[in-house]
Amino acid sequence: MNKILICFMFIFSYSFVCAIKLDEISSLDKCFLKAINEISVKVDMAKNNKEKTKLLETLAEMLIINKQYLPALSIYNNLLESKKIPKRKKKEYYVKLGDIYKLEKNYGFSLEYYHKALLLYKKNIDVRFKIGNMFLKNKLYNLAEKYFLEVLAINKNSDAAKKGLGDVYSCQNIDTKAIEYYSQINPKNYDKETVVSFVNCYRDLNRFDDAIKVLDIFMKENKDTELFFLSGLLFIDKKEYLKAKDMFLNSVQYGESNFRVYVYLALIYELTGEIQKAKTMYDKAYSINSSYAVVDLMQAKIAYKMNRFYEARRYAYNAYVKAKTVFVKNQAQKMIDFLRSDNNLLSIKDSVK
Q: CA nearest 318: which of 339, 342, 288, 294?
């Protein structure tokens, strides 16, 4: 059965209920068309309006999952026109319409339908939270704050609202206020995103021990390469380099492709005089991403310490060529000039022939 015929059968079966147009449905694959056909048959054979409504709701969800928003909108709008629709269902459809418009980034219509839902249930938390998140995503922080505070006024124990308020202030670099709300969240409800924001707020305020405590609590049950890396940075902030090294090594254990971890490990090994290990770490970083001039510059420094003068000249020259900022380019030039001035070395010109 070809696609056009299936679509025709699909529309013919229930267009009188949900007024879907053929040109509203696009990019349909065979599995999706088959599912649509099956539901259309069930709609046609439904014993009563309740069963038909349930099937149409299922179809609308399927359309949303497959990003067929226009026909999904048609279904919900027509369901809203049904007689004797319960208040609870009306609110549900308004929220669904708001969600679809949000997916389409039509935030004006989305807000309109969310507000219609709120008019039916004035103390609804979920809808307020959706509105708050929508404003937060669009950097309308004052409006986002308003709705998250309304959620807390209704339910003072809402960790989701506390996280939302923490995010509102964190995004504006109001770290003290962000910490005030993040710290009220039950640690059992932490997620990675919240922990990273929470820790960075403490870090901005040089409260490194507090940041480490937050990480330790979360990482008891959640081992993660990025979080180990962040923990390593905090120990560097505290100048506790051996502990930082342990964290970076743990980071590598849980994810071997983190370019930054190898760079920081190389720096620590260089600080502790373990030059060969520093070289190994720089080589691993270089194998992941060779585009950073700073790594070439560090490689030049390590090569010089190991008396590998040709390598030093090559890396210094590469750093100069790759540099995207005046500062790094100047540092590369200084390294080149230094290598030129050393009587034991050939000129940079000779080394790159």
A: 294
* Phi (first) and psi of residue 179, to 5 degrees: -60, -40
Pairwise CA distance, residues 291 & 306, whole Å: 23
Q: How far is CA 2 from CA 26, 32, 39, 274, in A?
A: 14, 13, 17, 69
Query: Is 111 a domain residue?
Result: no
CATH number of the domain enclosing 231: 1.25.40.10
197 and 147 share one domain: yes
Hey, is 142 helix, strand or coil?
helix
Write down the pTM of the prediction.
Answer: 0.78
Query: Residue 126 contacts by C-beta under 8 Å, 6 or more apart in sequence?
Result: 95
Confidence band, pLDDT 50/70/90 cuts, at residue 52: confident
Same domain, yes or no, for 275 and 296?
no
* Token pair belonging to 161: 């609202």
